[in-house]
């Protein structure tokens, strides 16, 4: 399409426009990099630029925007705060619990309102979390109901010792966002795996996360449209999320049974039990069981070592006391 447009306008004019745009973009990047905003986010220090951060923020939001509808749909399927009291009772009768499983106008209206409220809550909590991550931790990570360390590792922020700049504040924001999400009645808010899209686009600073939060702010005004998205329309996005999450499986040490088996059980239990928490609990429990023998052996060896150290100190004290007695006698 761009080639056809240049053909109609003429190659010279197209080249001139491209150069003008490039010059204007470079000027904007230079101004922002030298401003207080650029200095605060360390844009030049991290070898990035303003327009690149904007593109990264846009890419991150576009890949994670589906969660706004997905999260609300999943939570609405549980019934949310709707109860029998919201059902429309038949004439001269009292509504029974069956109304929650059969078509009922009153109950369906309650579910629709609940879904709309959950969309607003998801957007607000994600916006707050992403903004805090960008401002406080200066990391290009978007937060939504969904991998903090892995995203920092993908972005190349982790050093040889496994640490990264702003990690304390990043973990604090990640944990605090979970509290915010719970207070608003939605799933726990955490660093989203789709942040890798923005990182691959070139996002290197917290400005990317701030851009994501601004997009969530704009999404607040489109709540009715988002609420009308049918459940079957979000299936492909969930498949792609699963594909992205499975990429880290290659990093598991499959040669080590004590690491491979718990990881496999964790992956297997999540879809079979319809619960991420059950998968994690099963994996951690199996990991502890498989490593319990080694831990007991280590504890016994440590106790023996400590006992020997205590005995040696007692012998030294006894020997020193004996020498002092001999000196006094002499």
UniProtKB/TrEMBL annotation:
One Pfam assignment: Xan_ur_permease
Transmembrane segments: 118-141, 205-226, 287-304
Membrane topology note: Multi-pass membrane protein
GO molecular function, one term: purine nucleobase transmembrane transporter activity
Biological process (GO), any one: guanine transport
Family: Belongs to the nucleobase:cation symporter-2 (NCS2) (TC 2.A.40) family. Azg-like subfamily.
Protein name according to UniProt: Xan_ur_permease domain-containing protein
Species the sequence originates in: Cephalotus follicularis (Albany pitcher plant)
